[in-house]
Amino acid sequence: MESNLCPKCNQPMDEGYLSASDATFGYVSQKQRGMVRRPTNIERARACPSCGYVELYLDPKTLKPRLA
Ligand SMILES: [Zn+2]
């Protein structure tokens, strides 16, 4: 696993994912227009055990066409 340091406090980050029991977490851009604004799934997450900072990653190939 690649080693990643927290951008806030420079400590090693922990790798994981978002979990929800009966809801799906996703990202909706302000650039997305129209009636249906489909959220892009958050596929990857990292959290800093030292300061609590959280990074979230989605699939850019899924998001990009939705911004056009
Ligand atoms: Zn940190």
Structure description:
- The structure is a single chain.
- The protein has 68 residues and is an alpha+beta fold.
- Helix content is 12%, strand content 26%.
- It contains 1 helix and 4 strands.
- It has one helix spanning 60-67, and strands at residues 14-16, 26-27, 40-47, 54-58.
- It starts with 13 loop residues before the first strand and ends with a helix.
- The mean pLDDT is 89.
- Zinc ion (ZN) is lined by residues 6, 8-9, 11, 48, 50-51, 53.
Q: Which structural category do the helix and sheet elements fall into?
A: alpha+beta
Give the low-confidence spans. none
Query: What is the assembly state of the chains in this entry?
Result: single chain
Q: How helical, in percent, are the residues?
A: 10-25%
Overall geometry: elongated
Strand content: 25-35%
Q: How confident overall, as mean pLDDT?
A: 89
Quick overview of this protein structure:
The chain has one helix at 60-67, and strands spanning 14-16, 26-27, 40-47, 54-58. The protein is an alpha+beta fold and 68 residues long.
